[in-house]
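As agreed, record minuted below.
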Amino acid sequence: MEERTYALITGGTKGIGYELAKVFAYHGHHLILVARDENKLQQTARELQALGVDVITISKDLFLKESPFELFDEIKQRGLTVDILVNDAGQGQYGEFAETDIYRELDIIQLNISSLVVLTKLFLQEMLQRGTGRILNLSSIASKAPGPWQSVYHGTKAFVQSFTEAVRNEVKDTGVTLTALLPGATDTEFFKTAEMEASKIVQEGKLDDPVKVAKDGYEALMRGDDMVISGFKNKVNVAMSNMMPDSAAADNMNKKQAPANEKR
């Protein structure tokens, strides 16, 4: 009898993570969903179980340093095999760095970087032993340019992008692949959570559809691609940023992310 394997998705009850969970379920993957809100986890599990897959929920606060280790240990103790890891959970904080809350930013660094690194290491080691596995890390087009008004968030995503490409290179030819998904500004609760709803990018821009982002991410992961930039306009924006000096890219991003009522 073939061993049952699972796709583990952090942040799997909201936004892009939720849409990814739906795509995985639609394609017949059993799921382990991780989020903080137990009620939302149960609601999402019931919805996805209707697609005929097993859905296990684990409530964990990945803002806490010990949580990713506890999550891995719990999955081991339950005898579950994770053959796909999706590190989706992440947050940002809006505002100029001199004025923002450093403790919230340290939490964001813990969530966006430290928890992702821990989960990647622990599950990667198991995947390498088996000689098979896939990891999808949520990067962002924010990884490709300095981001005034979101300096810490852009910095964390630059880390995720560099880290993913580096580890992918280390494990090439092992049967394990790492893929980075780079969405642009997407229509999720991200901007509300980041207190960013007054920014030009939200007020004046057209936000991307998280369903399309999730589809792009899933397909790139299953192909074993190193990265995918979701959406044509985002590909253009990244190409333009790559040709600019960092100072010009930062100035360009400042204009896009400044409050809509400010002239810059």
